[in-house]
Structures are given as C-alpha cells and as structure tokens.
Please model this.
Amino acid sequence: MTTKAESTRDKLVHEQKLKEGQSYTAAHLGKLTTLDQYPMFVPSLNREVRGKVFIQDLIATTGCELSMNKLPAGVTVPFSHSHKENEEVFIFIKGQGQMAIDADVFDVTEGSVVRLAPEAVRCLRNTGAEELYYICIQSKAGSLGQHTFDDGVKVDHQIDWR
Ligand code: ZN
Model:
C-alpha cells in the first residue's frame, strides 16, 4: 500500500465517502471530471500525476486492480509499457483517443473495449478537444475459471430498501 493511496483512502474516510461492511467495501470518488483531486506519485516518472486513481488499495479487491482515468485534451501518456503477468482491459467512457499497441494504432471512443495481453507494448493519447475518460482493469492473465452465468448464483433474500 502506497502513502499516496493511503492519503486518498484517508480523504475518502474523512469525507465519509468510504463504506465498509463484512463482505464489501464501497468508495465514492465523485464525478469523473473531478478525478484531479486525488494526487498519485508515479515511480517511473518520478513525479506526481493527477487524473488517475488506482482502486485496489481503496476497496481491497482480491482478483483485479482497477484504475479510473481522465486524460486531458492533447495529452499522450508519456511512456509505453507492458506487464509482467497481468492482462488489461480498457473501457472507454467518453472522449476521443488512439491506442498504440505493438505496431498497430487505432481509434477509441465511448463504448470501445480493448483487451491487452501482458506482453503487449501499449500507449494511449487523447486526440479529441475534450478530456478522455476510461477505466482500466488489470487481472492475472489466464486466471478466469468461470464467469457470467456459470459463476452467478440466484439467492432468495428479502431486501429492506431504505
Ligand atoms: Zn498497465
């Protein structure tokens, strides 16, 4: 757990935007347009960035890491990277951009969903006039045993909505 992630968590706890129960953790980061309020130190850049929030330290996920991202207009992520063992899924929510993956470059926009194998060399840039919003999910490549209707179990439970 990093100091910066702790401070983001502390901020959410302080503002009562983090709720924990026996079997869940819920955090409310606010509108995506305000993601800049959470600073994060990036070791490979040796500086703080804003507009990217990693979720694992906040809600204690055990099977995936996830980040919520806001990339300003005209900005290219300042480095390419690959991964050791995690695949990534990028889910684009709003804006216009391009992904560079190995030798390919293609457009992404609201509704684009991209899976990358760990070894894929990737970069992203915002090609639009507005901010580009996306969520990136990391999980161990090859770890998915069962999914969708194979893993979901219907439970009879009386809900007291309040
Ligand atoms: Zn990555």
About this structure: The radius of gyration is 17 Å.
